[in-house]
Write a structure and sequence with these properties.
4-stranded antiparallel sheet, 226 residues, 27% helix, alpha+beta, 8-stranded mixed sheet, elongated
């Protein structure tokens, strides 16, 4: 009776090993690709969250620029408020610094720089120290808010980091009576012409897991700066 050898030959073993390595390499590549996608998406989400935090905070304050109570004429009791009222929004191109004089609605933004007390009929006065409104008066907390971009450290100081670019443009009307934006400029000579603010923010990932992301937003001023 003929006897047959049982088992695998060398060729079969090498073929099985090759196929196994190919499958393992494919699964490994799939795992690495999925991990890289997860890491890049996470990094991108963090950048978007930082941008959302900064821009939403900034736009809320921009919309309240120029809201100093219910009367246009305000007596400057301690000094300093009149100059801020005349120039309630300012962008310093050299310093990359945005300054806003804005109403603190609900008193949620910390200590006010000024307090305006008004009866909304005949009188309004601005004080440096906190004051208690008298009978028939309303209290309007006013704050000076500054956003400074430090190019060397790549941050909006005190708020977010990994900022590679930050710029501001003002949408101005053709004249003081105009309500629509006719053009955008870096530093308008007449604050009364400002109707909106365009902010551009570019964030970078220090680990280079994702490309730089640029966020642009426009906020319309609710209060005329006249």
């Amino acid at each position: 009776m003929r006897r047959y050898s049982k088992g695998f030959g060398l060729v079969e073993i090498m073929l099985a090993m090759t196929l196994g390595l190919v499958i393992t390499a494919g699964l490994l590549q799939l795992f690495i690709s999925a991990k890289d996608t997860y890491i890049s998406q996470t990094a991108s989400a963090f950048m978007q969250e930082d941008a959302r935090f900064l821009l939403s905070k900034m736009l809320q304050e921009v919309r309240m620029v120029g809201m100093f109570g219910c009367l246009a004429k305000i007596d400057d009791v301690n000094g300093g408020f009149s100059a801020a009222q005349d120039r309630p929004i300012l962008w310093n191109t050299a310093k990359r610094e945005l300054t806003l004089i804005t109403a603190d609605v609900g008193a949620t933004g910390g200590r006010a720089d000024w307090v305006v007390l008004s009866d909304c009929a005949t009188s309004a006065a601005a004080y440096v120290a906190d004051r208690t409104p008298g009978p028939g008066q309303l209290k309007f907390p006013i704050r000076k808010v500054t956003y400074t971009y430090n190019r060397r450290t790549g941050e909006i100081i005190g708020l977010i980091k990994n900022v590679s670019a930050f710029s501001v443009l003002f949408g101005v009307a053709a004249n003081a009576e105009g309500t629509s934006v006719s053009r955008y400029v870096a530093n308008p000579a007449n604050p009364a012409l400002i109707r909106s603010l365009r902010v551009s923010l570019t964030l970078t990932d220090p680990a280079k897991r994702v490309k730089d992301q640029t966020f642009n937003v426009v906020a319309t001023l609710r209060n005329r700066l006249e």
